[in-house]
Amino acid sequence: MIRLLLAFLMLPLLAGAAPAPRDWTKTVTRTADGAYRIGNPAAKVKLVEYLSYTCPHCAHYAGQSGPTLREKFIRSGSTSVELRHATRDRLDLAATVIARCAGPAGFLGTSEQLFAKQDDWYPQGMRFEQSNAQRMALYPQGAQVRALAYGAGLADIGKARGLSDAALTACFDDDAAILQIAAMSDKSWKAIAAAAAPQPGGTPTFVVNGKAYASLDWAKLEKILRAAGAK
């Protein structure tokens, strides 16, 4: 009888318990052209970022924006971000393949690691490419990019994120996926040029709810996002 009474008394408490809010940073989808969209598909604020992994400004932006953009705006569901590649060189392509090899679930975390460790792998990759240019010229294109990924230490970042050597090899041997990156990058650079005209454009470039912005730092972009409804 006492147990039944206690259970009855607890019913209002159980009924009033609010469910845990959804973490929208875990929702990652791939668009038709191969970009990755993170967050609520129905978010009020839709951010597009054109990025390059060898771009120091992109790395700086990633470090500054993460605590607010990812942990507040995206997590809450108010904002989604679509990351579109604008590759600049073979080392950038190698990093892009590593990030995408992680798949939708691992893409964002791997991208963040690539930017966080850019000061290490970028100069290492430049030195490796210069020292091994003649030997690498004998390889097929895919093998050249794969060798660069290993020589730069990019493969180690992928392995730390759970990728095996076999998985990495499969990703670098996927000609269709690499062609998709090239096609996306071509479109991205055209969009970047249009956003920055008449000045030359660069990465990162942003689009917020359809309006393009060039040469923004995180402080300025945050104000634009908040004004649009990010919270």
From TrEMBL:
Q: Which InterPro entries match?
A: PLipase_C_Pinositol-sp_Y, Thioredoxin-like_fold, Thioredoxin-like_sf
Q: Where is the PI-PLC Y-box domain?
A: 122-150
Q: Where is the signal peptide?
A: 1-17
Q: Which domain of life is it from?
A: Bacteria
Gene3D superfamilies annotated for this entry?
1.10.40.110, Glutaredoxin (3.40.30.10)
Cite the entry's keywords alphabetically. Signal
Q: What is the protein's given name?
A: DsbA family protein
